Amino acid sequence: MPSNASPRTKPADVRRREILAAAEAVVREKGVGGFSVSDVTQRAAIAKGSFYLHFESKDAVVAALRERFVEDILSEVATRVDTCAPDDWDGQLDAWVRHGLALCLSPRNLALNEILFHGGGAPGLREDLTSHGRGVAHLRDLIARGATAGAWSASDPKLVAVFLYSALHGVLDHAAVSGEDDPERLASALIRLCRRVLKRD
C-alpha cells in the first residue's frame, strides 16, 4: 500500500465517496474509456484491494458515477420544486424543467455529462435511460399527481415522463454540440412543449 494511504478504519460510505471523487477526477482527465483501476487507486491513495471492496470493476465505478451525477442534480431539482405551492402544478413542472436544465448546462456539469454519457465507452440508449431511471420516476410521479388533481391530461404518466425526459436530454445534446449557452431560452421552449403535451382536452 502507498505510504500516504488513508486509514483502513474509515467508514465504508466515506471510503466509497473518496473513491468516487478520485474516479471522477481521473475520468475528467482521461475519459470513460481511457482510465484504469490503478489510476483511481493511485489518485485515492489506496490499495486495489480497497477499491474492490466497494466496486467489482472499472465499469461498476463508472456506473456509480453516472448514478451519482443524476442523483445530485435530481436532489437539487426536487428541493426547488418543493418551494412551489402544493397545488401549483404548472409552477412545479416549470421549476423541474428550468432548474434541471440550468444545472445540466452549467459548464462543470455539461462537461461531466458529455464524458460520462457520450464519451468513449459511454452507454447506449438503453443503459443511459437505466442510469436516469430515478429522474424519469421523479418526473413521472409529478405528472401523475398533477393529472390526478385535474391540472393535466396524462393517461400514461410514465410514457409521458420518458418522452419529456428524453426531450430534455436531446436539448442538452444539442447545447453541447452547438455551444448554446442560453438556458433561459431553452427552458422556455421546453416548458411550452411540456404544457402542450400535458394540456387538458
Question: What would your notes on this structure say?
Answer:
It is elongated, with a radius of gyration of 19 Å. 73% of the residues lie in helices and 0% in strands. The model has no long low-confidence stretch (mean pLDDT 87). The protein is mainly α. The chain is built from 10 helices and no strands. The chain folds into 2 domains: 8-55, Homeodomain-like (Arc Repressor Mutant, subunit A, Orthogonal Bundle); 64-198, Tetracycline Repressor, domain 2 (Orthogonal Bundle), CATH 1.10.357. Helix 4 (58-81) crosses helix 5 (89-104).
Please give the structural blueprint.
Elements: H1 12-30, H2 37-44, H3 48-54, H4 58-81, H5 89-104, H6 107-118, H7 125-131, H8 133-148, H9 157-178, H10 183-198
Gap between N and C termini: 66 Å
Kindly provide the name of the CATH class of the largest domain: Mainly Alpha
CATH topology descriptor of the largest domain: Tetracycline Repressor, domain 2
CATH superfamily caption of the largest domain: Tetracycline Repressor, domain 2
* Unreliable stretches: none
Taking all Cα atoms into account, the compactness measure Rg is 19 Å
Helix content: over 70%
**Quick one: how many beta strands?**
0
Estimate the strand proportion: under 5%
Structural class by sheet pairing and helices: mainly alpha
Summarize the helix and strand pattern as letters.
HHHHHHHHHH
- Helical run tally: 10
Describe the global form.
elongated
Mean pLDDT: 87
Largest sheet, strands/sense/barrel: none
What are the salient characteristics of this protein?
elongated, Arc Repressor Mutant, subunit A, Tetracycline Repressor, domain 2, 73% helix, 2 domains, single chain, 201 residues, mainly alpha, 10 helices
